[in-house]
Give the backbone structure.
Amino acid sequence: MHIDPLEKKWAAIALGIAGLFVTVILASALFHGIHAPSHVETIDSASLHLSAEFAEDKLGIEEGANGNITVRIVAGRYGFYPQDIVLPTETPLTFRLVSQDVIHGVHIPMTNMSTMIVPGYVAEVKTVLHHPGAYPLLCNEYCGMGHAHMWNNIKVISKAQWDALKHPQGDASHE
């Protein structure tokens, strides 16, 4: 069986490119801390509204004693709930997301915030948002006819503005 030298060269180039891609993927996984989820947390999607963590009055922002912020969001029927969220810059954020119906995706453009939200599981993403501004929170997994309208508003403000919201100037407890 004879293989033309030109075909051998092109086969070597194709294998070299495939090897380069595998190397880049492995290197970025090792050096950028990208890894598969190791902690799988389940939840009953049918009774989210009754859960201790994802009941309607628990959704949104919760600031911990250490200054870290947890953001709880429910995705379902072409919306993210709550609709509008204000977050500070340069603060460790933990997004905890659940779906009440089908698979959804969540993505904040120009950030590293992106994950799938699978019914029955809690998706958790940790990030820090560095730049103030308005960011859309988009569903990036086709979820039905209203998918194109499934988005949310994330407003990122400076740390000083965040502190001013928490402690207004006229607040007696601040004096």
In short: The mean pLDDT is 87. Residues 5-31 form the longest helix (27 residues).
